[in-house]
Amino acid sequence: MHFDPGSRSLLSRHDLGRFPAATLFDKLARVVCAVDCLPRKELYESWEVARRVRRRFRGGRVVDLACGHGLTGWIMLILDGSSERCVALDRRLPASAQRLHEALADAWPAVANRVSMREGDLADEPLTAQDVVVATHACGTLTDRVLAQASEVRARVAVLPCCHDASASSQAGLSGWLDPGLAIDVARATQLGHAGYLVHTQTIPATITPKNRLLLGEPTERVLPAPRPAPAGSTDRSAHPSRARSGPR
Ligand SMILES: C[S@@+](CC[C@H](N)C(=O)[O-])C[C@H]1O[C@@H](n2cnc3c(N)ncnc32)[C@H](O)[C@@H]1O
What we know:
Layout: H1 24-35, H2 40-56, E1 62-65, H3 71-79, E2 86-90, H4 97-107, H5 109-112, E3 115-119, E4 132-139, H6 141-153, E5 156-162, H7 180-194, E6 197-203, E7 213-219, H8 220-223
Parallel strand pairs: 1-2, 1-4, 2-3, 4-5
Antiparallel strand pairs: 5-7, 6-7
Helix pairs in contact: 1-4, 2-3
The chain binds S-adenosylmethionine.
């Protein structure tokens, strides 16, 4: 029978046999199945987001905002040992989040003491320029808040937006051409660019979720060569691309 990765059904012990391989993904899926609490699509969404973000952004503290069960942050640490820590934060952690955390900790003991989960508003988490901020399906304007918070400190950031709210998020005048959700995401990408970020746009498979646009941003100063010293007497400060940006910092 077809196994739909976008299903909201809970993964359970009955699904263990679907993940027999010695791969990292199957090991992760078996741990999740045994806990019997996670909607199937959350496993696939978290995996697809985490591995794409990790291909671009290594190291740093991982901050998983509006984290739900915190699986995206967990996977990012499993995939990349160069991150010392992950903080996963949600206004209200699901009741089953602790059980999943404990099961993951049993399976990856070396990662366990580097992941902490806590409850709070995302504005309560102080960020720094070294962080990798990720938010998988932070609903509506929550995604805008994540982008604003991360760009304020020049952190690397990745969001997979959902529940677009055309009455609250900017569409940058694009609603005559693009559907509102797409207009909002284009406006977000453009705004990140204006803030001096190198922007990457990707998608995760639509079979997992139709809300599959992944927006990644990296401050240009992290990727561009350091500016050459200006010749004596020069007042030109726009030679370095990161200084030529037009938007707010
Ligand atoms: C659609 S869920 C996504 C959860 C998880 N990232 C995932 O992909 O499964 C959105 C989450 O945002 C959380 N949330 C809503 N407002 C928040 C806020 N102000 N600060 C932190 N988390 C918030 C909710 O509690 C919920 O868990």
